[in-house]
Amino acid sequence: MLLKTNKETILYLIIVLLITELIMLTFFPGIINAVKDSGKTDENLCVPDPGYTEEAWREHMSHHPEMYKECLK
Questions:
Q1: Is residue 17 in a domain?
Q2: Is 1 or 20 the better-scoring residue by pLDDT?
Q3: pLDDT at residue 10 in the model
Q4: Cα–Cα distance for residue pair 11/44, rounded to 1 Å
Q5: Which domain holds residue 24?
Q6: Do the beta carbons of residue 39 and residue 63 sit within 8 Å?
Q7: Same domain membership, residue 73 and residue 46
Q8: Which residues are within 8 A (CB) of 11 and not within 5 positions of it... i.e. 6 or more apart?
């Protein structure tokens, strides 16, 4: 009985974590880029990611002025 309860608890915890992650990604879709860009150096931060044009990258950076302040000067 106790073993089944522990498995159910772990399962419910995993489900709650997955739902929380989906909600976070729904309300903050740019969080993936923020995490990905957080480890870049200042030199690499201003270079467009693959798939971005220079204009599209500048527009992306303008939405996050606190993160790309060195690039937007």
A1: yes
A2: 20
A3: 92
A4: 41
A5: 1-29
A6: no
A7: yes
A8: none
In this structure, is residue 51 part of a structural domain? yes
Q: How many domains does the chain have?
A: 2
Tell me the per-residue pLDDT of 30-67, one tens digit each, with 9 for 90 and over. Answer: 777 666 666 666 667 788 878 888 898 888 888 888 87
DSSP letters for the chain: -HHHHHHHHHHHHHHHHHHHHHHHHHH-TTHHHHHHHHT--HHHHTSPPTT--HHHHHHHHHT-TTTSTTTT-
Mean pLDDT of 23-30: 83
Residues 45 and 21 in one domain: no
**Two tokens at 72?**
């937007």
Q: Model confidence at 18, in pLDDT bands (50, 70, 90)? A: very high
Same domain flag for 20 and 44: no
